[in-house]
Amino acid sequence: MKSNFLQRAITGVLFVVVLVGCILYSPLSFGILFTIIGALSVHEFTHLINQNGEVQINKTITALGGAYLFLAVMGFCQSTIGAQVFLPYLALLLYLMITELYLKKKNPIGNWAYSMLSQLYVALPFALLNVLAFQYNPTESSVTYNPILPLSIFVFIWLSDTGAYCVGSLIGKHRLFERISPKKSWEGSIGGGIFSIASSFVFAHYFPFLSVLQWAGLALVVVIFGTWGDLTESLMKRQLGIKDSGHILPGHGGMLDRFDSALMAIPAAVVYLYVLTLL
């Protein structure tokens, strides 16, 4: 038990250090890290689906698609290349559709559906991190790298998870979604939300490119959609009959276990910030 806790602690610290360090260091380290994470996450998702035995997805092609989509959106957001950068990705999607005509697998519709879901559910959210990270500056007619927005998403998620665990362990009585995740409580979720919103005031103080209310709103959006993201992966694992999505992170499970909340929180954060620009 003690060795397992130590393993979890060491892995958790290294995970946070690498993630925070790569986001803050440079656009290159940010791009390399999340290209790898995106590809590994898509590969893990397709591996889990294939294990079910009902479908058979091309794990290599879908993982390459996830990696390419991240790089394509990154290049597009940096204005280094136009929309034509997405043409190879469209060709890849067409390849996944057309090859099913010739492979004579038992469930081609299922293969199509889950192949596309791997891109929509897993690859696209990671690619959208670029929308948060690279922002156009109209006064200088240039694009600047702002690591704080993508970093804040993960900070809000981590604090929400930590707060939910601590508060839920102490006073959690009312189940949040017992059918899918029996351990989660309303008290824990609200406590986690308070932790995240409190941290948004720190972000507002040091990074005032958003107002206090805007930062607090972002934290609230991340908490709500992050919780739904967590529950979505829990539903998937429950249906597949597994405890962890993988074993790549000792003591912490797989990539999807670590980023399940982010898969919904990132797109929701992008929508929220775009809505702010329209107001």
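[next item in queue]
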Amino acid sequence: MRTDVPAALPLLESDVLKTFVGIAESGSFTRTAAQIFRTTAAVSQQIKRLEETLGRTLFLRESRRVRLTSDGELLLGYARRLLKLNEEAVAQFLIPNLAGTVRFGTPFDIGVGSLPDLLSQFALSHPAVQVDVSVGRSCELIERVDAGELDLTLLNTGNADADDSRGEIICSEALVWAGREGGLAVKRNPLPLALANTGCAWRRAALDGLDRLGRSYRIAYSSEQCAGQEAALLADLAIAAFPASLVKPPLRRLAQQEHGLPPLGEYHIKLLCGSNRGAAAEALAAQVAVAFGARR
């Protein structure tokens, strides 16, 4: 039996855990300090006290960023679960008991990747609210919001979108060229592309960039969902413009200069709300904005 464990273990403060998670996700004390409206010195002091409390080093300080130690990685999982549990507990008592139905729209690729966890959390905090999810193209979802058929929707947009005036940007991400690791598709001429259908921001960025560069290409595969595009990439039949977060082994990011590819800029995820949305839709909109804002 261990005899070195204190009789009363210290408690971890929620605001310190939030700071810790922020630094772990951003890789920067300075950026995290700006996000929580504290000085960098104050944030450093919080982490120093946390490390003293646990008796472990949590971050390795490098020249341009900080990264987690193995103990820091272990704590990160606990910290996220503790903060989530705290949020659920507070919401149970402070958030009004909302009821009703929210009609929520999302483009195909966002719906597949990011929404399951978000909707699960919303169901825990608002069990009496039913969320009806519709999946479609951004242009169609905008029309449905305007027609009163949807209360709110997410949108995929690019830098040159005609719809830039609609909705609020809640997340931005770099678009990159992706292909199979060790693949030959990027070396073919004309360049074989796997694209979504007309209206997709990724498609428009890819085609506009190649046209400006004067690079010859052919649309080898077209799919409404990124899973179809990914299948073509995995088979080394084409390359595609993808958000950086979706490029995972055995896919790889293709170097622009090495392969004569144009830069693609960023794409944005926007939130567009209908004018007649109710309180339940407002609650979901707030949770969506927070969840995607954390990914910036």
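[queue empty]
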